[in-house]
Amino acid sequence: IESKVNLKIYPNPNEGLFTMTWENEITTSDSPSELIIFNYLGEIVYQKTVLGDVKAEINLTKLPKGIYYVK
User: Fold this and answer.
1) How far apart are the first and last CA of the chain?
2) Is 23 exposed, middle or buried (0-12, 13-18, 19+ CB in 10 A)?
3) Cα(50)–Cα(60) distance, rounded to whole angstroms?
4) What is the pLDDT of residue 49?
5) Which of 23, 2, 8 is CA-nearest to residue 58?
6) What is the torsion angle, in degrees rounded to the nearest 10, for the CA atoms of residue 67, residue 27, residue 51 and residue 33?
7) Which pTM does this prediction carry?
């Protein structure tokens, strides 16, 4: 099943401490969602499974500065 996701990351840019919110058009309160953040090498640096619509406070301040990708 393919669905659209409304993803927001703020503040952007940041120093490694930020908030992510997203809504999936087919998500219900008990549907699991997987949040994965990768570094430029494709290595997973953060992973979390959550239920329903999400607001997550992410702390990556111990990681090197750079560009990271969200899936």
Assistant:
1) 16
2) middle
3) 18
4) 87
5) 8
6) -40
7) 0.79
